[in-house]
Amino acid sequence: MQFMDVAALLAGIGLFSLGASALACLLFGARLARHSNRMALLRWMRSLSDHTIFKKSDASPAANHPDSGDSRSRDVAIPDAPQGPAVPPISATSERSPLSASLSEDARLLRQIGAEMYQAGDLSTKPSLYLDEYANLFGPVRELPLRIFEIGVQRGVSMKMWEKFFPNATIVGLDGDPQPSGFPQSPRFHFVQAWQDDAAAMQKAVQLAGGPFDIIIDDASHLGCHTARSFALLFPYALKAGGYYVLEDICTAFNYPSDYDAAPFNPPVIGCEGMPKVFPSHQHGMVGLLKQMVDHAMAPTAAGGYTQFPIQRVCALTNIAFLQKA
Ligand SMILES: C[S@@+](CC[C@H](N)C(=O)[O-])C[C@H]1O[C@@H](n2cnc3c(N)ncnc32)[C@H](O)[C@@H]1O
User: Fold this and answer.
1) Is residue 43 located within the same domain as residue 115?
2) Residue 69 domain-assigned (yes or no)
3) pLDDT at res. 51
4) If you measure from the C-alpha of residue 300 to the centroid of ligand 1, how many angstroms do you get, rounded to a whole number?
5) Residues 271, 273, 274, 275: what is their CA dihedral angle, to the nearest 10 degrees?
6) Per the domain annotation, does 122 fall within a domain?
7) pLDDT recorded at residue 94
8) What residue's CA is closest to ligand 1, atom 6?
9) Helix or strand holding residue 106 (H, E)
10) How many domains are there within the chain?
11) In this structure, which of 3, 153, 201, 233 has its CB flanked by the most CB atoms within 10 Å?
């Protein structure tokens, strides 16, 4: 082989490697672009799902119902849940503690205001169990210029009740339905028409109030999915540290089959024989959501700090819970 032939061969090999490298770069670049496009797509989809607006109409009784065949909402099989007999009762007592008789002045006042505001037979009337706890927790500060947000205000009756009980508070009400005629007006009232999972509407509520809230009350759809969305939007950003988030009508989680995320109540055995690792309990709807919140409240003991939902106190009463932000 002559010198010229060798040079041509080497040049050919060089050109071939250059071409192969260029092709590899092109392929790698395209893959990288596809990957980053996919990441962008994923980010976009996530942002979409973060802002998906659930309407009351989304809560169709068939969709996601435990019996609908949707495996995501089926009861999860609970391993190691012994079915042994409950602990036998020692003796029942009918003696009442004097603690049960205490009704504060504030509770008396709020009961009285409630009775004046709600007409007899109004299904939205807040029960005295609710009112008494509102009064016990918030009575001592009721004259402060608090910011209160109620989600689900219907005809504005509860807004009027809060206006009277909290004489210096700013009260924002939100409802998916437009204000009916005769909706109460007050210089201390603001109204937002929106569904409870509308992030922009929640921001507007904070702006109207002039800052984050001291008390947020959810009395809207009472479905776990909606309630969870409002909570996720509001608790970390729109509630002051030390403020309270209130969930009303939690026991809708047992309204089976009328409420789509409900399931029948099945009293879990407490103290059965054996040592269960998983304690069977109701996981559906708002009762399930409340139990998630208990996990977040316990977070510092396991994670060394709070999660993005810093719940310091869970005060759960029959059908209502008060969650205090750390
Ligand atoms: C029980 S009523 C509220 C009663 C009111 N808090 C009172 O005590 O006078 C429930 C209200 O929540 C509203 N609502 C139901 N689902 C909603 C949702 N997903 N978003 C916003 N409002 C909703 C209804 O339109 C209704 O007016």
Assistant:
1) no
2) no
3) 30
4) 34
5) 0
6) yes
7) 82
8) 153
9) helix 105-117
10) 2
11) 153
- Pair (248, 141) in one structural domain: yes
Backbone angles phi, psi at 233, to 5 degrees: -75, -35
Look up residue 45 and give its two tokens: 């989809």
Structural domain contains residue 63:
no
In a domain, 99, yes or no: no
The ligand 1 atom nearest the CA atom of 154 = 27
Q: What residue owns the CA closest to ligand 1's atom 7?
A: 158
The answer on 256 and 189 residing in a single domain is: yes
Average pLDDT, the chain: 81
* 145 CA distance to ligand 1 middle (Å): 25
pTM: 0.77
Measured CA to CA, the distance from residue 57 to residue 134 in angstroms comes to 31
Give 124 Cα–ligand 1 centroid separation in angstroms. 9
Range of the domain at 224: 105-325
| Ligand 1 centre distance from Cα of residue 31 (Å) | 50
Q: Is 56's pLDDT higher than 80?
A: no
If one residue of 175, 204, 260 were mutated to test the ligand 1 pocket, choosing by the most ligand atoms within 8 A of its CB, it would be 175
Instruction: Give the tens place of pLDDT for each residue, 240-287.
Output: 999 999 999 999 999 999 998 999 999 998 887 888 889 989 999 999
Question: In sequence order, what are the residues at sequence separation of 6 or more whose Cβ sits closer than 8 angstroms to the Cβ of residue 155?
Answer: 124, 180, 182, 183
- Same domain, yes or no: 45 and 128: no
Same domain, 40 and 120: no
* Same structural domain, 112 and 41: no
Best residue among 55, 174, 177 to mutate for probing ligand 1, ranked by most atoms within 8 Å of CB: 177
In the chain, what percentage of residues exceed pLDDT 90?
65
The answer on 111 and 42 residing in a single domain is no
Q: Is 230 helix (H, G, I), strand (E, B) or coil?
A: helix
Contact 56 CB / ligand 1 (< 6 Å): yes
**Is residue 301's pLDDT more than 60?**
yes
- Ligand 1 atom nearest the C-alpha of 226 is 19
Angle at 261 between CA 68 and CA 126, to 5 degrees: 155
Q: What CATH number does the domain containing 138 carry?
A: 3.40.50.150
Q: Measure Cα distances from 64 to 74, 226, 261, 262 in Å.
A: 9, 14, 7, 10
Ligand 1 atom 8: the closest Cα is on which residue?
158
